[in-house]
Amino acid sequence: MPKFAANLSMMFTERPFLERFAAAAAAGFTAVEYLFPYDHPAKTVADALRSAGLKQALFNMPPGDWAAGDRGLASLPDRREEFETALVTAISYAKTIETPLLHMMAGIAPCDDPAAIACYRENLKKAADVTAEAGIGLVIEPINKRDMPGYFLNDFDRAFDLVLDLDRPNLNLQFDVYHRQILHGDVITALRKMAPRIGHIQIASVPNRHEPLTGELDDRRIFQEIDAIGYRGYVGCEYRPAAKTEEGLGWMAAI
Ligand SMILES: O=C(O)[C@@H](O)C(=O)CO
Ligand SMILES: [Mg+2]
User: Fold this and answer.
1) Cα separation of 30 and 25, whole Å?
2) CA distance 98 to 109
3) All residues at 6 or more sequence positions from 3 whose CB lies less than 8 Å from its CB, including other chains
4) Is 176 in the pocket of ligand 1 (CB under 6 A)?
5) Is the ipTM of this complex over 0.95?
6) Per the database record, which ranges form the Xylose isomerase-like TIM barrel domain (predicted)?
7) Distance (Å, rounded) from C-alpha 36 to C-alpha 45?
8) Which uninterrupted H or E stretch holds 138?
9) What's the DSSP call for residue 2?
C-alpha cells in the first residue's frame, strides 16, 4: 500500500494553514504537502511541521501573483528575473522546511509558442541544476485544461520526453492521476511507462476531485499498480473533501 501525504491546500482547510499540520497528524498522516508556504516565515512552517511530528513531501516554487491569475513563471520570457528570485526563495524555504522535492509550475502561455518553449526549457535546466546543488529534487506536473485553462504544460508525453531529454537525475515527473485521467486516460499504462521518471504522485477522484473510491477510476487497482511499479515515495492526497476532511477519511481503511 502506498504511503499517503495530506495535501494541506485542499485538506483540513476547516482550519487556518498553520493548524492543519496538527490536524493531519491527529488523523494519522505522517507527511504533508501543499502548494505554497510563502505567506508565513519558513521557520514558522518548519516548527508547525516538526511539532506535529510530520515529514514534508513537497511544495511548489512561488508561482507569481496567484490572485492575479499567475500559475507559475517558468515559461514566461518577460519574467525571467522574477523566476530567478522565485527560485532563490524556494531553495531557502526548502532548506529550512526540509522538503526533498520542489514543484516548478510552468505558467500560462501557449504550449506551441517557440519563445515560451525555449524559456521553459532554459528555466527548467537552471532550476534542476540549482536544486541539485542544494540536494533537492525538482518535479514538473502536466495539468488538465479544464482546471487550468491555458497552462503551458498540458501533456504527459511532452513532459516525460522533456525530463528524459534534459537528463538530470534530480528532475522528474509529478504524476497527478487526476490530471492524467482528464487529459489522456490510460492511467496504468502511463504509470508503467513513466515509472523510472516519476518523482511524485498525487491522487483524487475523477471528475469531482474528491476522495478516492468516489469517482470513475478503480483507485484500488491504481494503488496496487503504484506499488507494482516500485514507487516508494509519498502519494499526495490532493483532493477537495466532499464534506468535512475527517468525515471523508474512511477510504484509507477501505482500500
Ligand atoms: O494538481 C495541482 O493542481 C497541483 O499539484 C499544483 O501544484 C498546481 O495547482
Ligand atoms: Mg497535482
Assistant:
1) 6
2) 31
3) 30, 31, 234, 235
4) yes
5) yes
6) 21-254
7) 11
8) strand 137-140
9) -
CB 144 less than 6 A from any atom of ligand 1:
no
Q: For residues 251 and 243, what is the distance between their CA atoms, to the nearest angstrom?
A: 14
What DSSP element (H or E) covers 242? none
d(Cα 255, Cα 252) in Å, to the nearest integer? Answer: 6
| 8-to-66, 85, 237 alpha-carbon distances in Å | 17, 25, 9
Q: Nearest to residue 2, comparing CAs of 247, 244, 230?
A: 230
What pLDDT is stored for residue 53 in this prediction?
98
Residues sharing a CB contact under 8 Å with residue 67, sequence separation 6 or more, in sequence order: none
**43 residue type, one letter:** K
CB 191 within 8 A of CB 223: no
Cα 245 to middle of ligand 1, angstroms: 19
Q: Can you tell me which residue has the cell 488523523?
A: 27
Query: What are the catalytic residues?
Result: 141, 238
Tell me the pLDDT tens digit for each residue of 109-139.
999 999 999 999 999 999 999 999 999 999 9
Which residues in the chain come in under a pLDDT of 50? none
State whether residue 177 is helix, strand or coil.
helix
Retrieve residue 205's grid coordinates.
477522484
CA proximity to 147, closest of 30, 240, 249, 38: 240
φ and ψ of 198, to 5 deg: -90, 115
Which helix (H) or strand (E) segment holds residue 105: the answer is none
Distance 9 CA to ligand 1 centre (A): 10
Task: Check if the beta carbon of residue 37 is closer than 8 Å to that of residue 45.
Answer: yes
Amino acid identity for residue 250 in this structure: G
205 in ligand 1 pocket by Cβ < 6 Å?
no
**What is the C-alpha separation between 156 and 190, in angstroms, rounded?**
9
